[in-house]
Amino acid sequence: MKQILTVLLVTLAIGFNAQAEDALYLTSQETYDLVQEQGDRLLFVDVRDPIEIMFIGFTDMVDKNIPFKLADRSDFLSDKGRFAMNTNRDFASQVEEALREKGLTRDDLVITMCRSGSSRGKPSAEYLMERGFTNVKYIDHGFQGSGAKEGKKKGMRIVNGWQNEGLPWSMTLNPEKIYRP
């Protein structure tokens, strides 16, 4: 009986932890709807490096582009075939400043969006929560979405995400919103 109870408690704990983790994300459509309905009561942040945005696209629905990670063009990682991505040390303070500019606080909703949702969207949301922001979510599958698993376009980011959901975006960047150091 004790074993059954232990297994049940562990199972419930794992399920609760998964639900708590899942509570961090929103879909692209949910985010779009929230911005339409409550845009003045939340902060929507694109956390991608601005150079990435320039080549992939942008949605003017975001309040601001504040990169969570910035490409370090002086540090090429040969084994990975890319530049190092370093955390923007001013990220939390820049998000807090953007909140203040909208008349909001650390307790108001902040939504982060990266390219895929996993490498910077979720980590940026967790980073802010660790620093005292109380209501942070990220867009699952981010701006560009996931890669196709099979077919002629295998690996291409044509599944889900902001772009693939048909939400507003363009290749034109809004200079008032794009990060500049």
TrEMBL record:
The lineage of its organism: Bacteria, Pseudomonadati, Pseudomonadota, Gammaproteobacteria, Pseudomonadales. The keyword Signal applies. It comes from Marinobacter salsuginis. InterPro entries: Rhodanese-like_dom, Rhodanese-like_dom_sf. Residues 65-155 form the Rhodanese domain. Residues 1-20 form the signal peptide. It holds the Pfam family Rhodanese. Keywords: Signal. This is Rhodanese domain-containing protein.
